[in-house]
Amino acid sequence: MSAKGGAEGGAGSPAGQPRWGAGQWPARSAPPLVSIPPTTMSHVRAIELSRAPSASHRSLLPYQGLRALTSTYPWLPSDRHAVAIPFNSIDRLLHGIRRRWSRERRRRKVGRAYDMALEIARVIPYGSEVLDVGCGNGFIAHHLSAMLGTSVVGIDLGSSADAPIDYRRYHGAEFPAEDNSFDALLLCYVLHHARDLRVVLREMRRVLRDGGLALIYEDIPQGPWDRFMCSCHDRQWRKRTGPCTFRGHSEWWALFDSSGFELIAERQLSRWRNLMHPVSRRLYVVRHRGSSLLTAR
Fold first, then answer.
1. For residues 68 and 64, what is the distance between their CA atoms, to the nearest angstrom?
2. Residue 215: phi, psi to the nearest 5?
3. Half-sphere exposure of 25 (CA within 13 A, CB side)
4. Residue 219's beta-bridge partner residues?
5. Residue 78 per-residue DSSP state
6. Dihedrals φ, ψ of 184, to 5°?
7. What are the sequence ranges of the domains in the chain?
8. What are the start-end ranges of the H helices in the chain?
9. How far does Cα 68 stand from its chain's mean position?
10. Contact 207/229 with Cβ under 8 angstroms?
11. DSSP letter at 9?
């Protein structure tokens, strides 16, 4: 082999023919995996780049260090997307679970309010003007407005209600309503929250017309389990509305009679209406006896 042949080609290759085949030579023109902009660098710069961590080691760096490295060397491949994909998937999954849980809670809340409104509409005559005392989210008043063909008014301590109703804020003293302005009142699990029950009963007499009805739902502790559930309810609401006072069946009878109300109907309700609060409960329907029995305020 001549010196010229050994330098330019190889054993058996024609003169001037490169060592690699002609078919393999175009592969050298393919772009590199990492696009490095043409630049001139000093010897110190080359040593600095050679000591920079590789892409496989950069995943071990803290997030701030990784951002500083990629900002210093923008031509380095970034693994930001590779890390974000699984976290984005988990975030989407958790967001979907939270949204589904919120939707189910809303459906249960609205559905339970509809069932109670349907039960109340069987007692209150169509077209009656109704005040919902302690309306909460307002969905009972909202459903009942459609069933009775009137605008049910809701009052509570909060600044607003979730449902689109005629809402008025109650400050704990007088009801925000005129005298003798309603045909019926609703008090759905409200009276055990009252700090001064006599004041609430007096306001009920004031805003009700003669012969008006009041529908009262209440938890009635009858045994150890009921007393335990009522104590849990008390601890849950004590900081928001004060201590709860639960009364027995005979106590409610005596209170209604002494406050100028006549008990005309009552019904035992299933404790499984609310699976989160399984306690004995009753519905009382009382009638306002008239202005002759009103006491001086």
1. 6
2. -100, 120
3. 6
4. 281
5. P
6. -155, 150
7. 107-293
8. 3-8, 43-50, 55-58, 63-72, 80-121, 139-148, 197-207, 224-241, 249-258
9. 39
10. no
11. S
Residue 13, classified by CB atoms within 10 Å of its CB into exposed (0-12), middle (13-18) or buried (19+), is middle
* First-last CA distance in the chain: 127
Tell the residue number behind the tokens 């201590």, with chain if given: 243
Strands 182-188, 208-219: pairing is: parallel
- 268 DSSP β-pair partners: 282
Residue type, 178: E
Strand order in the sheet with 153-156: 166-169, 153-156, 130-133, 182-188, 208-219, 281-288, 261-269
Assess contact for 237 and 189: CB atoms under 8 A: no
Structure tokens at 72: 């210093």
H or E segment and range at residue 134: none
DSSP 122: T
Please identify which residue in the block is written with the tokens 């009137």: 150
Q: Are 190 and 134 in contact (CB under 8 A)?
A: yes
pLDDT (tens, 9 = 90+) of the chain, 297 residues, equals 444 444 444 444 455 555 554 444 454 555 555 555 555 666 666 666 566 555 545 444 444 455 555 555 555 555 554 545 556 788 888 888 888 888 888 888 888 899 999 999 999 999 999 999 999 999 999 999 999 999 999 999 988 999 999 999 998 889 999 999 999 999 999 999 998 899 999 999 999 999 999 999 999 998 999 999 999 999 988 888 889 999 998 999 999 999 989 999 999 998 888 888 889 999 999 998 874 444 433
Fill in the amino acid letter for 207.
V
Which residues are bridge partners to 153 per DSSP? Answer: 131, 166
pLDDT digits (tens, 9 = 90+) for 80-117: 545 455 567 888 888 888 888 888 888 888 888 999 99
Residue 205 has what pLDDT? 94
DSSP state of 51: T
- The CATH superfamily of 107-293 is Vaccinia Virus protein VP39 (3.40.50.150)
**Is 154 in contact with 174 (CB distance < 8 Å)?**
no
